[in-house]
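SAMPLE LOG
Freezer: B-3
Tube label: C17
Construct: single chain, 107 aa
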Amino acid sequence: MGDLLQVTDDTFEEEIVKSDLPAVVDFWAAWCGPCRMVGPVVEELAKEYEGRIKVAKMDVDQNRQTPAKFGIRNIPTLIFFKGGEVANTIIGAQPKSALEEVIKKLL
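STRUCTURE (predicted):
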């Protein structure tokens, strides 16, 4: 089973920024309809790319510092990291193929 992390303001730096693997973080909220559409796709990607990319979710209602730091105004927002730096950002619900395209560039 893919390792879908739940990151918080407290664990973000350690899990994502300092990760040896490229990472993608899905910034979401329970009340967000498009977030619920993206969620299963993110889970699939976590399984398919297990061991090659770290996949995480962050609830923006529970964690305010990290989304503010990255200027997140709309959700879902997926931010892709490589070497601790932002490599790409996708805002809004996108098809799985669009997310995979970005992931393949990170690998």
